[in-house]
Write a structure and sequence with these properties.
The protein is of the alpha+beta class. Helices cover 48% and strands 12% of the residues.
Length: 581
């Protein structure tokens, strides 16, 4: 009697094992059963059922058809079925990929047991059953696998969500779904890991662009993702995990999953790099391709020194593109200029009790601003903040909900009703547009600093000092061409170098970005400042950018201030600083 076993992949609707469902022939029963369990774990969620049957149960003619089918699957072992002309049926190509994976897994299992290709493993008992892991192997193998899966889960989230732009990547999404499924399965079925807390719940159902496009890594995801990874790492150390010994059941168990985990991390890293490259292409597309023409001389005016009117399009500010912390700092800077001289930024220190910005005037009247920088403000978010405010014992005389995006009339009324229910009768709601117009009326220069990337002071005291220094002074929003031209020697050496490098680039632009890899600057498609985690280098070049922005030699061309392009005056100054272009 032949010891061989056939493996079958049954699609929904398939009722029997046949030549059109077979994909692998295993040498013995225990190997076949382990392979089936592995395929169920990795691919079973898609509705495919994996079974195995002894070869002895099939008649001779079936063996001929099975052998012929397996030979055809070897022909179609390339991952992309469209390289074949004509392409094989999708289901057949899928079975061919199962065959490739089964062969790889079988070789790993046999190598770990030190056996040949056709022999039964030396440790295989006489009853033909694959040896089950001892409790210690199950515990240690599960701990090692849990840490690897948690690392892959974190890498997938960070490398995708932190990108400035997104694209559909089915392979990346498949890796995310696989990682989530394996993590869930491991924590549910490994009896040695039942005391792990907290319960694992994936942050996203998938990594499709529509799911993550409005999500910010630092403010909305990083804390939960890092918290889970930290919890796993602490748990693994507390349970006393150690590297499994070579050829031990625990080592074999972990190694079966390692290739897919490695692939998941590689896909995430490649996606992040691809999105960065795409961002650079967008930079070249939206930036000027050549030096702008010099402005024509202004026509003579009847009034000496009169400014020449310029028609400019005023674009809406996209507050939702910025972090919650940056948004709160902007609102505080505005409040300090709009009759809230005693405003305190409680949200900066955390545990604010729902009070982001708090003020008490000379008469004793108290007011609070609740900042909610979301593209689409939700009642649940505001209701939670208002309830937190009430539960904290704070009873301000006035509550202002400040949103960064749109607020419908219906939502506005619901928010006021919710505030009234919690005892706050004087409640106002500002949408992003309303906030923008208020700032333009009182302190428009704040928007220029906000959008052009010039950092605000970090503390309330520094913000108050900045507001006081501006009091009574007329904000300067732009300089005339004559006052804009300064002696190049007045620029710092770093600003000069930056200006010349940008002028030599065909698009006259620079991309500055801060990602998980660090801070970096790209000019003309090459790395001007390679990614670095050193704060000193970042501060040095950010100071140069601020210097050029203040002088009007460069300008931001995107809402985040990451893409900066030379102005006409910038090109002229560059010619003064460096060699003639």
């Amino acid at each position: 009697m032949s010891p061989a076993f056939y493996l079958f992949a049954l699609q929904p609707g398939d009722t029997a094992e046949a030549a059109d469902t077979v994909f692998f022939e295993a040498d013995y029963e225990s190997l076949a059963k382990v392979l089936c369990r592995l395929f169920d774990m990795e691919y079973g969620a898609g509705g495919v059922r994996f079974t195995c049957k002894p070869a002895a149960e099939f008649p001779p003619e079936a063996h001929v058809l099975f052998a012929e089918a397996l030979n055809w699957l070897q022909v179609y072992d390339e991952p992309d079925r469209h390289v074949y002309d004509p392409p094989p049926p999708e289901v057949m190509h899928q079975r061919a990929q199962y065959a490739v994976r089964a062969k790889s897994w079988a070789e790993i299992l046999k190598a770990k047991h030190g056996t040949g290709s056709a022999a039964k493993p030396a440790s295989d008992p006489a009853d033909g059953k694959f040896p089950t892991m001892a409790p210690e192997d199950q515990r240690n193998g599960g701990l090692n696998l849990l840490l690897l899966l948690a690392q892959a889960y974190y890498a997938l989230l960070e490398n995708t969500v932190s990108c400035s732009c997104h694209a559909l990547d089915l392979e990346l999404n498949d890796s995310y779904l696989w990682t989530v499924a394996q993590m869930t399965n491991l924590l549910e079925k490994n009896q040695e890991l039942q005391d792990f807390a907290p319960k694992f719940e994936p942050i996203f159902p998938d990594l499709y662009p529509s799911t993550i496009k409005d999500v910010e890594w630092e403010d909305m995801v990083a804390s939960d993702a890092e918290g889970f990874l930290s919890a796993v790492q602490k748990y693994v150390h507390r349970k006393g995990a150690y590297p499994p010994e070579e050829r031990s059941p625990a080592r074999i168990f972990v190694e079966l999953f390692r290739p897919a985990i490695t692939t998941s991390i590689e896909r995430a890293t490649a996606y992040h790099q691809r999105m960065n490259e795409h961002m650079q292409k967008r930079l070249r597309a939206v930036s000027p391709s050549a030096k702008p023409p010099s402005p024509a001389p202004a026509a003579a005016s009847n009034t000496a020194g009169a400014a020449v009117p310029i028609n400019r399009e005023v674009r809406a500010v996209h507050f939702e593109d910025f972090s919650g912390r940056e948004f709160e700092r902007l609102v505080l800077a505005y409040a300090l200029r709009d009759g809230w001289p005693n405003a305190e930024w409680l949200g900066d220190a955390g545990a604010d009790g729902g009070r982001d910005i708090w003020n008490k005037d000379e008469s004793g009247k108290t007011s609070v601003m609740l900042c909610a920088n979301f593209k689409n403000l939700t009642l649940a978010k505001v209701a939670s903040d208002v309830k937190k405010l009430a539960d904290g014992g704070a009873k301000p005389d006035q509550v202002i909900v400040v949103g960064g995006g749109k607020v419908s009339a219906g939502l506005r009324e619901k928010i006021k009703a919710e505030a009234s229910k919690q005892g706050f009768l004087n409640c106002s709601v500002w949408s992003g547009v309303e906030l923008e117009e208020r700032i333009r009326r009182k302190a428009e220069h704040l928007l220029e600093r906000f959008c052009h990337g010039e950092p605000f002071p970090e503390t309330r005291a520094e913000l108050q000092k900045m507001a006081a220094s501006e009091a009574g002074a007329k904000p300067v929003h732009a300089q005339s061409a004559s006052s804009e031209y300064l002696d190049p020697d007045h620029l710092s050496d770093d600003a000069k170098r930056l200006l010349v490098e940008m002028s030599l680039a065909q698009d006259g632009s620079a991309l500055r970005a801060k990602t998980h890899s660090g801070y970096g600057v790209t000019i003309g498609g090459r790395e001007f400042v390679p990614d670095t985690m050193e704060r000193r280098i970042e501060a040095k070049w950010e100071r140069a950018f601020r210097e050029l922005l203040k002088l009007g030699l460069i300008e931001a061309t995107d809402s985040k201030g990451e893409i900066l392009a030379l102005t006409d005056s910038g090109y002229e100054r560059a010619d003064e600083c460096g060699p003639t272009r």
